[in-house]
């Protein structure tokens, strides 16, 4: 038997062993699990009118958990709505449902394991959070339109997309993205970036019927926001929509890190230098300097701390270490280091996007797992 055929079963077996250890160690709800497990227990008791106002995401996870509880109970599993049982729902999602979804497009098992073992997602296989099934129901529409570039594909994709909105309401961003990918795949090819933009706009008008399912989901989302009085369930006061520009930097850094083999190639590095320094007779260098200044300003003034409050800090390092424990000189030094680092990440992603018009499509799974749609603040 080829190694490719063994890699998924081996991965699933190792993950199961890790899950056993994790469940033995995690005897109590982990952070926000206390809200999710408690709400799901309420649903398991068929008390669907009761809602914990501390929960900000839709009830899809608890409806799914309730169905899973009844299934386990029917086959004789005890404590079928307990923490271990509900956590196993995400475990099945990660090692069974997600690989099945990835099978929609021709690929090998090594790629599947590469995707499902992504660290930011893998952790949640052992917890009862929204991330795993939300990811599955976002990946499914994307792969559906890649396989079926037609009205049928659009309808199926939006049915899955609608289901994803019951896990995380911010998935409306990814439903829109799937529509963009579908139109992009159907448009006429062109070598010029501006010609590609033109062809994309023309294709939108040609394929207006295909876009109707996406418009339906968009309408339903707008109606929900209007009726709900905002995008957030539950505790709206402490979950206000705020512009979080630094989240874009986190996403770019994430993509850059996980595409390390791509940007270390000699060809890519040469094009990157031209893109950032030598191109357009020195104009790109001026744009790079201006970008450094802008990025430094954004990091310094628009990094968001807990509860959406802006702070004069430099993102994750200061958030972890504690802004008040650092001297002004240290803060300035971190600013000086982070600005070029973040520019490199954004510059690399931007360069690849303009050069190939495909970096976002190629790496959308990585972005999805990190949920960078929360540019306007976390939904959970």
UniProtKB/TrEMBL annotation:
Signal peptide interval: 1-23
Molecular-function GO terms, alphabetical: dolichyl pyrophosphate Glc2Man9GlcNAc2 alpha-1,2-glucosyltransferase activity
Stored InterPro entries: Alg10
Bilayer topology annotation: Multi-pass membrane protein
Pathway(s) it belongs to: Protein modification; protein glycosylation
Keyword line: Endoplasmic reticulum, Glycosyltransferase, Membrane, Signal, Transferase, Transmembrane, Transmembrane helix
GO cellular component: endoplasmic reticulum membrane
Segments traversing the membrane: 89-111, 123-143, 155-183, 208-229, 241-263, 283-299
Coiled coil: none
EC number(s) recorded for this UniProt protein: 2.4.1.256
Keyword Transmembrane helix: yes
GO BP, one annotated term: dolichol-linked oligosaccharide biosynthetic process
Annotated compartments: Endoplasmic reticulum membrane
Catalytic activity, as annotated: an alpha-D-Glc-(1->3)-alpha-D-Glc-(1->3)-alpha-D-Man-(1->2)-alpha-D-Man-(1->2)-alpha-D-Man-(1->3)-[alpha-D-Man-(1->2)-alpha-D-Man-(1->3)-[alpha-D-Man-(1->2)-alpha-D-Man-(1->6)]-alpha-D-Man-(1->6)]-beta-D-Man-(1->4)-beta-D-GlcNAc-(1->4)-alpha-D-GlcNAc-diphospho-di-trans,poly-cis-dolichol + a di-trans,poly-cis-dolichyl beta-D-glucosyl phosphate = a alpha-D-Glc-(1->2)-alpha-D-Glc-(1->3)-alpha-D-Glc-(1->3)-alpha-D-Man-(1->2)-alpha-D-Man-(1->2)-alpha-D-Man-(1->3)-[alpha-D-Man-(1->2)-alpha-D-Man-(1->3)-[alpha-D-Man-(1->2)-alpha-D-Man-(1->6)]-alpha-D-Man-(1->6)]-beta-D-Man-(1->4)-beta-D-GlcNAc-(1->4)-alpha-D-GlcNAc-diphospho-di-trans,poly-cis-dolichol + a di-trans,poly-cis-dolichyl phosphate + H(+)
Family per similarity comment: Belongs to the ALG10 glucosyltransferase family.
Function: Dol-P-Glc:Glc(2)Man(9)GlcNAc(2)-PP-Dol alpha-1,2-glucosyltransferase that operates in the biosynthetic pathway of dolichol-linked oligosaccharides, the glycan precursors employed in protein asparagine (N)-glycosylation. The assembly of dolichol-linked oligosaccharides begins on the cytosolic side of the endoplasmic reticulum membrane and finishes in its lumen. The sequential addition of sugars to dolichol pyrophosphate produces dolichol-linked oligosaccharides containing fourteen sugars, including two GlcNAcs, nine mannoses and three glucoses.
Name of the featured protein: Dol-P-Glc:Glc(2)Man(9)GlcNAc(2)-PP-Dol alpha-1,2-glucosyltransferase
Source organism: Candidozyma haemuli
């Amino acid at each position: 038997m080829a190694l490719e055929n063994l890699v998924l079963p081996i991965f699933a077996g190792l993950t199961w062993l890790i899950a056993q250890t994790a469940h033995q160690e995690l005897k109590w709800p982990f952070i926000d699990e206390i809200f999710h497990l408690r709400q799901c227990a309420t649903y398991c008791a068929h008390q669907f009118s009761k809602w914990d106002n501390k929960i900000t995401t839709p009830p899809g996870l608890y409806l799914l958990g309730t169905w899973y509880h009844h299934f386990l109970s029917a086959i004789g599993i005890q404590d079928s709505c307990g923490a271990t049982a509900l956590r196993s729902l995400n475990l099945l999602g990660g090692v069974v449902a997600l690989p099945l979804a990835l099978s929609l497009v021709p690929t090998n098992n090594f790629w599947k394991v590469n995707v499902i073992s992504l660290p930011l997602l893998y952790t949640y296989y052992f917890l009862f959070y929204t991330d795993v099934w939300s990811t599955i129901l976002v990946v499914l529409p994307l792969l559906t339109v890649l396989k079926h570039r037609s009205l049928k594909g659009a309808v199926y994709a939006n049915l899955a997309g609608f289901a994803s909105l019951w896990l995380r309401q911010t998935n409306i961003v990814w439903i829109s993205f799937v529509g963009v990918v579908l139109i992009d795949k159907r448009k006429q090819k062109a070598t010029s970036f501006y010609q590609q933009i033109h062809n994309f706009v023309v294709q939108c008008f040609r394929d207006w019927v295909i876009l109707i399912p996406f418009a339906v989901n968009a309408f339903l989302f707008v109606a929900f926001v209007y009726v709900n009085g905002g995008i957030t369930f539950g505790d709206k006061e402490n979950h206000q929509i705020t512009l979080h520009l630094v989240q874009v930097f986190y996403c770019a850094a994430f993509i850059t890190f996980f595409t390390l083999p791509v940007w270390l190639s000699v060809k890519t590095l040469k094009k990157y230098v031209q893109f950032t320094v030598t191109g357009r007779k020195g104009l790109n260098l001026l744009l790079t300097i201006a970008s450094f200044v802008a990025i430094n300003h954004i990091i310094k003034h628009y990094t968001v701390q807990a509860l959406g409050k802006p702070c004069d800090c430099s993102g994750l390092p200061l958030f972890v270490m504690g802004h008040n424990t650092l001297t002004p000189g240290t803060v300035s030094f971190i600013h000086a280091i982070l600005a070029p680092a973040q520019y490199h990440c954004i510059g690399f992603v931007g360069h690849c996007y303009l050069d190939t018009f495909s970096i976002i499509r190629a790496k959308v799974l990585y972005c999805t797992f990190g949920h960078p749609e929360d540019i306007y603040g976390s939904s959970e």
